[in-house]
Specification:
Length: about 425
Amino acid sequence: MVSLNVSWCLLVSVFSVQLKVLAIDEHLNVVHQDNVQFDSALPEFRTQGGVHLHPDRLTVTSPVLMWVKALDLLLDKMKRVGFDFSHVQALSGSGQQHGSVYWRRGASRTLQDLDPDQDLHHLLKSSFSVLDSPVWMDSSTRTQCLHLQDTVGGALRLAQITGSTAYERFTGNQIAKMRQSRGVEFEDTERISLVSSFAASLFLGGYAAIDYSDGSGMNLLDISTRTWSEICLQATAPHLDLLLGLPRPPTSVLGPVSAYFIHRYGFSDFKNGSLTRERIRNECAGGSWEVFSAALRETPLGNDGNIGFYFDTMEITCLNKPETKVRALVEGQFLSRRLHAERLGYNIVPGTRVLATGGASSNRDILQVLSDVFNAPVFTIDLNNSACLGSAYRAMHGLVADSGVSFFDVVKKAADPQLVVNPHPEAAQ
């Protein structure tokens, strides 16, 4: 048994459509969770699904100040309901991968001297050289991807260095585009963060390091040395290493929470596919998950041969029946997951089990389709905020990692996943 000797661990997650918070106690029980939906809670930013789709239908961004203001709202909500921040002994986070935040020159000084009597979004309104942050849905950097691959010696060589060929959404290619298309703003940038390290920077009152795991999704990190690849940096932007800072292990304790949060909220001074489903739900089920689930129950396995491939940034031709379209979407998404798993080398054989996480894992009818597609039983944990929970576990592990305690030892007392559905007998066909 690992004795952690702590009260609560807090996790803040910046996702595409919302900001989430979750707190666990020393027994890994969830003691608080809440969220702020960007579209509904912050309509002044005029986002749809938390993003802005630009006229070229390739460029997709999110307002960085929307994320900051959402944090203000979320922490204020927690304070109003009596959440005792002084119980929090460790804090971790997660963020949508690949997104980038561009801090203006002088922002580090602002972060270090925040007035606890004012909201963060007011204090930081002039701290970003780029107000619309590129996010993972962006696919506008094909030219930069080709240049990067050509510079390093081809797609295979890039994959050997960074673990992946060039993808439009990856941060390095987004940075290259930013330097080329918005040179004035780029020259006024003193630091570039990922969404995850941006959120950590807010709590630190200084720039947080990018961790190895998130850094591996940038086409910039040499995964063999866990340092920035010189040839990739040179192909992207001059002096980029200075803008990124040194990457750190994911288990690193970055430092204490800043005085701003101690004085404003009472933290103690102690040293990480749903958009499309929601769109089809709105179009075909009147915005109701109950009607959406009924459509899945009322349509046959295999959907009479109808499979949906949905590209939300371009025009599509709709299937006639709403219920057919619902099943086409869900079966199509899970068929894609199965194909991807098999290409990675996973064998779907008798005895295979599927562990479902994420918001959709609370919908039994969606899980039934998943089970049928994989012809395997599906298990879930008793919480749909699994990314939040995992990062809360990471925060707890951070308290004892330096003493050699493994992550497994910290989380082994967590509840086992529970069986939710088994495949229908005819699924094997």
